[in-house]
């Protein structure tokens, strides 16, 4: 790609004029400011944007690297910063949340009402014995109460750990166990696409598996009204618990390094990692990215379609928008119910001005609207939109163009935000009033963020050459450690390959040889990205081999037009290799099994059976061969080291 052939999309003069970061010179000035005085750059914003109970005097503490500390002697409370200070600033009657339920019912909650709800919930948590530092697991659907529960934890300094409502009993049990949680907040059920799905029964199953000994109680929010078994002495309905709670609650003022939350994510081994985030640094980046990436203004209606079960829902639903005093839409349901026009209708109805979603959702809606004009974005009034965002996986240029044209009416910049659970907020992203856009590229680092593309030794690579994505300097919202596993934190993110100096993102990247724009080329570890959801191949393999019928399993990814990547599993059974209808039955059985072990999102799209797996003479599974087979490629690769070439035929699929 040479400069002349790059087609840039420039923001209009109007957008540039009104943007928080106005024009490329302003962007460059911010980068230069950070370059000249790195700590000063962050400290200035931390003082301006956060209300501190006690101001910090230290900025970055590297004395125990790579366990970095930011603003460590400052004291604050995130819930205070999100709610009380908005009410104190006269925004009490401003709508904080426009909640649209799966069935279309709309509820509006003002800042004042949010504050009262959070205080009552916080008082309930305290009454339940939850103290500062205790972990609370939240297993809830997308509802106002889910956000209230998170904010309530923040208010009393109890780190929350959200478990996505699509995860299985086993996954929930493992997370409660690893976090040593003392309280579980869940709901009777959840609505999705017109169906009421169970949640409490799954939670009961999780606890029955054993290993949740730290758990002292379960609080249950009534959402669907489905009957559920309440265990006396352990379980309590949320509405009962809240009934007599006072409407005010003094926040727990915590140090800036106090953990705000844990969030489990997949890594390259079977066991998910409890990513631990801080309070002060995390909040700072949530606010800065709301202001610079999303250019949030008082009259905006912001809508991030993520679930609170993922980091996107933490930073850009629960914390960022509220800390900025914004009005946001919160959505329960799926983009295709009651039909694939749901998103566009909601943008129209609520006059959404900033819309943030995932490429997978866009791709599925493109497909759905191809044949059905009534669900095409053109059939809706989307004139309220001024800015679009994309997150979670690379957005292919065709989907980008469609989104830009059909949803953004050719006038809304698209911010393609690259970041991770571990980074807390945007790392590489366009700024809408500054960065000329190129479809498929997340463009340039957020001001202050020092991302680079290096080789295996950590040496900088020239633009135009693909390599490993690293961050050269610690930043305020970065992961602090893996819960209970400092060793794994170092090994995963500050490996010896780079003398322990660089943060390893786990992605490959290339910078355009002329513009220096970043394009993410995909994970360099055994992590897959399916519909923007992160899945470890080892995690799925462990789930498969836990089935008594399975002897061995290997899982790889293959590119998929709709989901980005698709999961392909190669399985060796203890018994005979099944064929025909037997194979079909077994595929269904194993797929359901994985769904039960991890959750439906981990179900393989394709399962193939062999008498064995392709291995080297030393017994190592040849994954590159499996990746080729998964894609249906003709095997031109060197198979000379292969012990058992005959089985390749069986695995062709
Ligand atoms: C992985 C992180 C970002 C929050 C939600 C997912 C991939 C994320 C992009 C993007 C290309 C992206 C990376 C990253 N990814 N955003 N804009 N372009 N790839 O967080 O579950 O921690 O996954 O998602 O591979 O490492 P996550």
From TrEMBL:
Entry binding sites for ATP: 392-394, 416-421, 507, 523, 534
Task: Name the source organism.
Answer: Azonexus hydrophilus
This chain's protein is named: Acetyl-coenzyme A synthetase
Q: Which cofactor does it need?
A: Mg(2+)
Question: What sequence ranges are listed for the domain AMP-dependent synthetase/ligase?
Answer: 89-475
Q: Does the keyword Magnesium apply?
A: yes
The residues listed in the UniProt record as binding Mg(2+), with positions renumbered to this chain, are 545, 550
GO MF annotations, alphabetized: acetate-CoA ligase activity; AMP binding; ATP binding; metal ion binding
Q: Which residues form the AMP-binding enzyme C-terminal domain?
A: 539-620
Question: How would you describe the post-translational modification of this protein?
Answer: Acetylated. Deacetylation by the SIR2-homolog deacetylase activates the enzyme.
Gene field = acsA
Would the keyword Magnesium be found if you checked this record's keyword annotation? yes
Show where the Acetyl-coenzyme A synthetase N-terminal domain sits.
27-82
SUPFAM superfamilies found in the cross-reference section: Acetyl-CoA synthetase-like
Q: What is its EC number?
A: 6.2.1.1
Top-level taxon: Bacteria
Regarding protein family, the annotation reads:
Belongs to the ATP-dependent AMP-binding enzyme family.
């Amino acid at each position: 790609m040479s400069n002349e052939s790059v087609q840039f999309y420039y923001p209009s003069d109007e957008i540039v004029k009104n943007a928080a970061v106005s024009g490329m010179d302003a962007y460059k000035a911010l980068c230069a400011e950070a370059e000249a005085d790195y700590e000063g750059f962050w400290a200035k914003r931390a003082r301006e944007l956060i209300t501190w109970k006690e101001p910090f005097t230290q900025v970055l503490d590297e004395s125990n690297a790579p366990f970095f500390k930011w603003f460590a002697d400052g004291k604050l409370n995130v819930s205070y910063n999100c709610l009380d200070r908005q009410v104190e600033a006269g925004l009490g009657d401003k709508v904080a949340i426009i909640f649209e339920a799966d069935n279309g019912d709309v509820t509006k909650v003002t800042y004042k009402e949010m504050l009262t709800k959070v205080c009552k919930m916080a008082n309930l948590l305290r009454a339940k014995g939850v103290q500062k530092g205790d972990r609370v697991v939240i297993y809830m659907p997308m509802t106002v109460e889910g956000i209230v529960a998170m904010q309530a934890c923040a208010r009393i300094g109890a780190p929350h750990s959200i478990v996505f409502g699509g995860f299985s009993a086993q996954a929930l049990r493992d997370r409660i166990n690893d976090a040593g949680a003392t309280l579980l907040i869940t709901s009777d059920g959840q609505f999705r696409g017109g169906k009421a799905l169970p949640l409490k029964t799954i939670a009961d199953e999780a606890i029955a598996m054993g290993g949740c000994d730290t758990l002292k109680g379960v609080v249950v929010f009534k959402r669907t009204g489905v009957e559920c078994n309440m265990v006396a002495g352990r379980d309590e309905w949320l509405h009962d618990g809240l009934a007599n709670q006072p409407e005010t609650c003094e926040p727990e003022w915590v140090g800036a390094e106090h953990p705000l939350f844990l969030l489990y994510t997949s890594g390259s081994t079977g066991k998910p990692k409890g990513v631990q985030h801080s309070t002060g640094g995390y909040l700072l980046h949530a606010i800065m990215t709301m202001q610079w990436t999303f250019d949030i203004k008082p009259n905006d209606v912001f809508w991030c379609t993520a679930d609170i079960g993922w980091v996107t829902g933490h930073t850009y639903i629960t914390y960022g928008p509220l800390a900025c005093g914004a009005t946001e839409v919160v959505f329960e349901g799926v983009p295709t119910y009651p039909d694939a026009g749901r998103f566009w209708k909601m943008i129209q109805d609520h006059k959404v001005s900033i819309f943030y979603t995932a490429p997978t959702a866009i791709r599925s809606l493109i497909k759905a609207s191809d044949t059905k004009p009534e669900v095409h974005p053109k059939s809706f009034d989307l004139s309220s939109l001024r800015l679009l965002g994309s997150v979670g996986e690379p957005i292919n240029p065709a989907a980008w163009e469609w989104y830009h044209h059909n949803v953004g009416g050719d006038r809304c910049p698209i911010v393609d935000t690259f970041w991770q659970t571990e980074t807390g907020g945007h790392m590489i992203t366009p700024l809408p009033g500054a960065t000329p856009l190129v479809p498929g590229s997340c463009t340039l680092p957020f001001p202050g963020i020092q991302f680079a593309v290096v080789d295996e030794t950590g040496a900088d690579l020239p633009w135009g050459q693909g390599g490993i994505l690293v961050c050269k300097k610690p930043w305020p919202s970065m992961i602090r450690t893996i819960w209970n596993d400092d060793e794994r934190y170092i090994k995963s993110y500050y490996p010896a390959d780079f003398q322990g100096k660089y943060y390893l993102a786990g992605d490959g990247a290339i910078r355009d040889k002329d513009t220096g724009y970043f394009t993410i080329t995909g994970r360099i570890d055994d992590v897959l990205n399916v519909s923007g959801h992160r899945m470890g191949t080892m995690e799925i393999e462990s789930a498969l081999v836990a089935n008594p019928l399975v002897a061995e399993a290997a899982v790889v990814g293959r590119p998929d037009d709709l989901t980005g990547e698709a999961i392909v599993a190669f399985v060796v059974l203890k018994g005979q290799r099944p064929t025909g209808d037997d194979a079909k039955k077994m595929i269904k059985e194993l797929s359901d099994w994985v769904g039960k072990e991890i959750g439906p999102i981990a179900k393989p799209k394709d399962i193939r059976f062999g008498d064995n797996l392709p291995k080297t003479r030393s017994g190592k599974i040849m994954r590159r061969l499996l990746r080729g087979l998964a894609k249906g490629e003709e095997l031109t690769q060197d198979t000379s080291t292969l012990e058992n070439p005959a089985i390749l035929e069986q695995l062709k699929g």
